[in-house]
Amino acid sequence: MNHPTASASPASPASFMVTRQLHGDVLVVVVDNPPVNALGIDVRRGLVEALDAADADTAVAAVVIVGAGRNFIAGADIREFGKPPQPPHLPAVCNRIEACAKPVVAAIHGAALGGGLEVALAAHYRIAVAGAKLGLPEVKLGLMPGAGGTQRAPRLIGAAAALDLMLSGRHAGADEALALGLVDRLGKTGDVLAEGLAYARELIAERAGVRPTRSARGLPDETASRAAIEAARKQTATRLRGLFSPMKIVDAVHAALDLPFDEGLALERELFLECLDSPQRAGLVYAFFAEREAAKAPETSAAKPRALASVGIVGGGTMGAGIALAVLDAGLPVTMIERDEAALGRGRAHVARVYDSLVDKGRLDARDKANAMARFAGSTSYDALANVDLVIEAVFEDMAVKKAVFAELDRVTKPGAVLATNTSYLDIDEIAGATARPSDVIGLHFFSPANVMKLLEVVVPPRVAADVVATAFEFARRLSKIAVRAGVCDGFIGNRLLAVYRTAADYLMEDGASPYQIDRAMREFGYPMGPYQVVDLAGGDIGWAARKRRASTRDPRARYVEIADRLCERGWFGQKTGRGFYRYPEGVRTGAPDPEVEAIVDEERKRRGIVPRSFSDDEIVTRLITAIVNEAANVVREGIALRPLDVDVTLVHGYGFPRHRGGPMKYADTIGLANVLADLRRFEKEDPLFWKPSPLIVELAERGTSFSSLDGARA
Ligand code: T1G
Ligand code: NAD
Q: Pick the residue with more confidence: 562 or 219?
């Protein structure tokens, strides 16, 4: 939206970020703080000045608040959190808007999130145009609405709807916002300023006057409201267990039901400040910025992406079909290549099956499914890939098979096509060597299920061209994936750290901890599953194959625990065989501890002459996280990961590391690298090879600094 020229008092920064102009008798107040009009101090000051001006100017009959650029207001300025708060604080700004003697209209386009929606809720009337997204996502930052949202939203849309928005953090589109009562009307055009002005003039003509939300009667049905609050308490105590702010949100909404507005607002402030001080807020805000920084690789600013209008996928198995779904969901056409018609049929059926279940659940419209399937083509001839812009190979994890596929791709694809492999472990530079154009070959490492998991490791071999890397990041953005740049080594960033995590867990198990205690301790720490539940989910046979492949190159001095091999030798591969480390009675996804497994563990200890000892849950967590952090420091030191934040984003989005802790490197910084080094020195006495401290940790600890010092200013 193009905003009118400033007529505010002389050149305070506030006057640049919040401008105002009289359109007849309507004062238009424009918030202009790129990139997302965050409510930083100057914007807050500018809004108060604008409302004061409106009340003081008799020529003003109504006010319209609107955002410049692509959004209304995306919330408080997250970068201000953790810094000393400066007045006017946002609750006061919102109260000032609500107290205006002239009707105030919030004209919403793009994002109206968090404090941005709270500004709109403080206005007396709200209009939105198509494409608007409204929400109170503070919970995703370890926070809660802190500018009246917990008191005004329930009054406007009821306790249940308000709690759903605040506890899920999801965005409501314009239509849903109207249905909920978050906005009063939808604009017929996309011209948000014109729509806002028209609405304001109508209100003036009708002498509609002001309509403070604080006195809205959205909590009429006390019984229903109490039931919604109790249901939210249960949900928070179970599904959001371990998170700090959700229960504070429920407490605040409860106050909206029982307390007068200003007392509820005061309680909200108290609870908000508690959330602001919680370490979870620090971890989640770190994660917010780290994800965005990870998308900025040197190549993305050095080169322009190539064309990306069509995609080929070779291999229609677990990953090929999942990747096809992700590409179709992004609106792109897909051509799948398989060895034979039967395999191709399985790949297509997998894609259709996923869409059918979404349609059945009402999460996808049948028409959208048909449109997506119409963009799906399949063939057993590689010639079908002659004109695609990008090809992703997802065939068997076998070097010879992959090299044959890339030689074929080299023959059929057009010059400039990007050739990507989804290999989990294999040397991408060797695969690239099977073509005459290694500079066009890159790794795109998806995670299963590829249409669901957000993480995408962009694996950069030494000979790849910068614009190919830039194309990979652009592709990730199109698929709404969180991309992380990784160098080539065994397992790249994620699987390399997973292997060390698993090894440390196996050492603990053989030394005396039960696999079930280890899993429970890691769940308490915040992982959705412990390491042995993950093995059973992914399939013990996959790891077994990898261990056998590595046997010839394994360091003979390294300790090797054979417990998992004993289970695999019995065919106990996990969920897919009904038992692994746990037993899975027919159709049950949550396994039961298995005394036979504990007996096998005991046998192995005896065979190795190990006298089992007990470990506390804390010791288990310390050892497993320290193992990850130590190896991750090597990954950063070797340049496999550009920065520590890239490791954090990888483990949070691909390996279940609890997001509210920010990631292993952020977590290590909260503990202090000197303490991490002390733990490493302690463990090193037991096994100098496995626990050899990373030189990077030694260096940073000696310098008394942190991993984040390597991330650059923002993260
Ligand atoms: N504060 C500061 N910077 C922000 C920001 C914010 N609220 N939102 C985005 N940015 C930066 C972001 O880091 C990036 O910077 C650039 O803007 C573009 O963002 C009291 C306490 C709005 C949907 O949680 O969800 O209000 O990397 O890449 O994909 O109750 O940004 O370019 O340098 O994400 O188009 C609540 C957070 C705050 C919304 C746009 N608000 N933002 O998505 O662009 S807490 C939120 C978003 C609060 C009050 C409480 C998204 C977006 P850079 P982007 P996008
Ligand atoms: P899969 O066995 O499920 O599927 C492989 C498919 O490739 C099969 O359908 C097979 O018919 C097809 N294929 C084999 N040779 C072919 C050829 N020459 N031309 C065309 N199609 C051919 O395997 P998957 O689990 O989907 O794994 C595929 C790749 O993705 C592997 O490199 C694997 O390491 C990697 N990967 C797997 C996962 C996972 O969790 N499964 C995760 C990330 C990466």
A: 562
